[in-house]
## 1
Amino acid sequence: MSAVLATGPAGDTEYEPPAEPVAGAKRRWWVPYLQLLPGGVWLLLFFAVPVGLLASSTLWDPSGSLETGYEMTWRWQNFSDGLQTYAPQFWRSLEYSFIATVACLLLGYPLAYAIALKGGRWRNLMLVAVIAPFFTSFLVRTLAWKTILSDHGWVMDVLRMTPFFGPDDRLLATPFAVVAGLTYNFLPFMVLPLYASLGKLDPRLLEAAGDLYANPIKSFLRVTLPLSLPGVVGGTLMTFIPAAGDYINAELLGSPATTMIGNVIQSQYLRVNDIPVAAALSFILMAGILVLVTVYVAVSGTDEVV
Amino acid sequence: MAVGLVVLAYMALPVAVIMLLSFNKPDSNKTTYLLDENGVHWTLDNWTNICGGADDMCGSLWVSLKIGAIATLIATVLGTLIAFALVRHRFFGRSALNVLIFLPMATPEIVMGSSLLTLFISANIDLGFGTIVIAHVMFCISFVVVTVKARLAGLDPRLQEAAMDLYATPWATFRRVTLPLVMPGIVSAALLGFSLSFDDYIITTFNSGGVRTFPLFVWGANQRGIPPQVNAIATGMFLIAFVIVAVGQLRSARRSRRAAAS
């Protein structure tokens, strides 16, 4: 539940402050430091330090507890324990979020394209329509999918008329429902960066392509798609990263067979209270995502991401 | 274009379902989200008796509102200051600060929530209202910075220079020229921060102790049975937010039309 309005049109170019101070700006050197001090300290104290602490807690001895405290024993085995026991959930998380990201791309690109290039004066209204579902609670929206996909709902009735679904088949509590939930919930994260990127596309380039005898498909593949690549990269990252760690969709729409690594981490922390193993799992998740993201950004050859 | 509209309809579908369900009377709280074959049992009870569903539902709503207000206030102030520092000045450590601001947006919530929990446990800090506020401010700051920075960076510096030419002091320039021009960015950053805070589940659940916010209530109620008033509350939130955004859009449209006409 994160970056929605932040990736606005001006959000992806790095602004360079003026070489000389703006007229009237205080020239005292300590002003910027004073300005960034409260927020910077907050982020350091409550983001950077905790993440570092998380890293060190991965090596604690799991035989401790919340009351007795944990001992730092450099127990690298926590990582291998976690990986061995919960490898299926890890793979499942990566698999589900990958499919959901691809689905978001297939759904979100046409929508962003329509808003940016064909929206005209309806553009702002359509953008509001994209963001509007966020005004209801994330949990309640996911629960609404339970209603939509429920065994006696219209969707299932229609699907049962096709030869693919028998009278006993259901969609709830299947991987399909979890992926559908993930896709739905993270769609705006894909649409907005794509829109930001497509919105900067100069329509005269497409006209020029047409003048040079390119048909619509070719103009799309050779002009629009490459120019919108930063948006594609940004959108897929903003979708994949939170989706990989999500567990709400798996809990509300899935079954014990579809648990993702997020479910495991949450239960290890809050129910079983096995902090070191849970921390190790968190760390592996974050490291795994970082590796995938770095490779992806390097391969796609763009450093304009947000 | 047609595909785009279909996708928009897909996105609106659960919202429509929630609105529908807010007028539905389920057999029991456990079947709130399972419409049976008879369809909707129309009722206005969920709206007239909006706090009756469960004892702590409206209490959790109030907690969420309080936390949202406090966290938004702190995060907006801190984030706006950082945005000003980043846009107006060159200073040592700028790129490191940019990384520090970008990272919370890119980290999975479960990692942020669990690492904060680890900090609070290690420092023996009691979990509760305060820790929730700390967590919410933490993840809102980045979004505030990005939003305000975008607005601030787009301002024409000549407006400030003109003010200085007209003998305005730096403070007066800030108060009467800069601040009003940046205010839309600050306002939308605050709205964004509030909605992030109000709707947050994952980070809150790790740092809440016994305190229940509205999302935490809904999650807990999922086991026992969710009162149908939840749908009325969700619909209400949607309508309020929709009106706010629509009014904002209309006002900016009217302003730009007036500016174009003159």
Note: Confidence is low (pLDDT under 50) at residues 1-13 of chain A.
## 2
Amino acid sequence: MTGSARGDRSIEVDGLTRRFGTFTAVDAISFDVAQGEVFGFLGANGAGKTTAIRMLIGLLAPTAGSARVAGYDVATQAEMVKRNIGYMSQRFSLYEDLTVRENITLYGGIYGLSDEAIEKRTAELVDRLDLRDDVDTRVKSIPLGWKQKLAFSVAVLHDPKVVFLDEPTGGVDPITRRQFWELIYTTAAAGTTVFVTTHYMDEAEYCDRVSIMVDGRIVALGTPSELKAQYEARTIDDVFVRLARAGNAA
Amino acid sequence: MTARGDGAAIEALGLSRRFDDVQALDDVSFEVRSGELFGFIGPDGAGKTTLFRILATLQRPDAGSARVLGLDVVKDFWAIRTRIGYMPGRFSLYADLSVEENLRFFASVFGTTLEQGAELIAPIYEQIAPFKDRRAGALSGGMKQKLALCCALVHTPELLLLDEPTTGVDAVSRREFWDLLEKLRAGGLTIVASTPYMDEASRCERVALIQRGKILEIADPRRIGERFDRPLIAVRAAERIRLLEALRAHPGAGSVFPFGDVVHYTDDRPGGDAQAIAASVRDDLVAHGIEDADVEVVPPGIEDVFMALMQRRGMEAA
């Protein structure tokens, strides 16, 4: 594995920069994420999060600096990056008119799994998510919380080294949310790095470490407890609001 | 505008509404006092939007009744519409009209002018005035939301209904929005807002917790912890999965949930003393080989109460 040759870091970002004309959307950000870590990538609307992620997943070339994801350089090995990551967006990537089984089969095929592997993964997944009775139900008819768990499971179907999640738990009830985080923790404990983007600060409290981006730069990075202690704040939301307001005032 | 406290702005009795095989609202009753800032808190699909549409007279209930500003939502719908401001959850502005054109349009629909509504919207409008010639579609999320609020207020309503006004906007804009609502409330306006974000409950005077079309509880958010009938223990340890497993195996374990960077534990054995439970949890974790655990008794918050009520009602997670 190329990734393991460089120690246990799944994401290494060094001075990563992206300019659009005269506007610097991402301004020389640097950070590392360890294998199996749950990392929260926070920022206000327009702070540069989306641009940074598009570079990390190999969709946008950096203007300066470098990043390695899953052991591959995002600028020169973008195809290998894409093959070794999973992605779950806010509006799930599931096909609503296909059944649970059909969605798993479809994504398994896209990821290049063999028929045999797909069958095995389907059985495991359906068992773990308790979807046995609904395996032939169309996705549009299953509850939101199950869709979220299924979308996540599909995003890690090919055992990627890193999975990117965009606001994974928005809108679900508090019990379902916690079940979802347990699924994330289990996946991370098995060695997949989980990279969570969100502007819902409550989600940040569940991450091992979080970074906060303001105006293209990372202005804070640490465990939720460290950041709360450092800024004498009760919640990450308080930390964030203080940093973002300071940024806007500047 | 009615003076604060002189009666009910909304009285809902047994409201129910069904769509095909989904019971969106199931026998919902509540009262909002005049001048109150009242919140409906619940996840997607809880029935919040259906409830707001009924209150805004855009949908009829299958059963039950509701009076808004003393008027019946089915019989008196025209009269209600001119006296309330309603901000739907989805972006409700005309994206190709400018900020100012949107405001003038909404004013004219209600037979008034932007100038007549100016006093009420002034504190909000001054924040978006620098962009008054910009197309609404080109505004940031936080700015759109402030414009939508202005449009809902331009005819100086007595009651404001806001359906998920802060969904999808960032933490700074969310706070600014609630600050604005507090100012409006201080001016005497009655405000009913819904949100899926539990942490916004503290900005309301009273909240209704809603799930699967039912109201689980109505309470003052500052006192909602009193609805939690057992000690709550927060445990922190480096290895989260192992910690969760060990706590679930603890004799007497009730609920065990990850909660940010800690795990919340309750005990099912009746009459337990908080410190005694904490001590037994600590000992048991050491016996499981988890020696770095930090165990403390903490006050329950709104999410703890919400989850306990869901479990008591036998509502499984969706």
Note: Residues 174-189 of chain A form the longest helix (16 residues).
